[in-house]
Amino acid sequence: MAVPVAGRSLAAVAGGWVTRWTDRIVDWAFIVAVGAGEDYLRRERVRVAQGVTLLIVQFLAWLGSSFIGFSLLLWPFVAGGITQAFAVAGGSITTLGFSGPAGTIPPAIVFAAAASGLVIVAPQIAYLPALYAAYNRRETEVAMLNTRAGEPSWGPELLARTSLAETDESASDTLSDLYAQWERWAVDVAESHSAYLPLVRFRSSQPRTSWVTALLAVLDSAALLQALSPKFVPVPARHCLRAGYLCFRQIARAMRLDVPEDPHPDDPIALSYEEFLDAVTHLRDAGFPVGRDPAEAWHHFRGWRVNYEQAAYALAFTVDAPPALWSGPRRHGLAAISAR
After folding, report:
1. Ranges of H-type helices in 196-336
2. What are the distances in angstroms from CA 132 to CA 126, 164, 209, 239?
3. Which one, out of 65, 248, 262, 289, has a CA that is 20 to 30 A from the CA of 56?
4. pLDDT of 272-287, one tens digit each?
């Protein structure tokens, strides 16, 4: 678990290699565990334990590295060799004191070992409620989005269901409130998940739901709204777009994923024009007010999506998010699941 220090995690400040390597090892272990099968639900049942496993492994890595370090420091001073050094270090770090020092051991080393044990263990326990609170805030909004954008969430589906359920005026108010909520959500997740990287690996309780695809769906809906119906765009939509793509970039950079710092609006995107036209047809069938020609709207939509697509795809691939529409490829090439 990473402990925050002045806006950054303790792992990033004092030992980022521990966080990075334990994350890679645990992720590799779960890749092997899920195998190459196409049973998506089985893969999710295995993957759901990854976040907790990562916390445990990181705790053991911090404790184990301290144990080995202090054992090597004590080795020259104990009479029983490296075995006795291990015993003294273990007793000091855990404060059990089951093995008395045998030799002329400097008290400073023993006291430092005891203090390091407390420094490692106490924050792990103290920050568990903070981790759960951050996870709960994240998942509350994600779960609420399922009824509006389907499972897994898809941007065009969010606009289509809103159009079917409400009048144009009430739909604008509803979307305004939603984008305001997700702007705050994106800022909160960006800060908490970049400081506590294991949170990125914690999955939603619903197998077809993910915080990555949920935010991507909200951003796609806002980009579509501005591209197709600029007259109906609520002010919070633009703020939500900016907060959302900054959230994706901040977390992707914290995980050391290769994402562009500031994409140009004319840069290409992975989503095809044909997929965009299919979404426009879906929206028209639902009664969504398309006020701009799709060919013209495509240029505006691409200019918005280029800001977050690569970072969102990289995160979705890394955490093996449910293969939602418009969310990029996955490790095992599973076909995208339509929103339902």
Report:
1. 198-201, 211-228, 235-254, 273-285, 294-305, 309-318
2. 11, 36, 18, 27
3. 248
4. 999 999 999 999 998 8
Q: Which of 52, 92, 24 is nearest to 257 (CA)?
A: 24
Contacts of 170 (CB under 8 A, 6+ apart): none
Alpha helical stretches, state H, the chain: 10-14, 16-34, 40-47, 50-74, 81-93, 107-126, 128-149, 155-165, 168-195, 198-201, 211-228, 235-254, 273-285, 294-305, 309-318
pLDDT tens readout for residues 78-116: 777 788 888 888 877 876 655 555 556 677 787 888 888
**Per-residue pLDDT at 115:** 81
pTM of the model: 0.84
What DSSP state is assigned to residue 166? S
Distance between CA 211 and CA 156 in Å, rounded?
Answer: 17
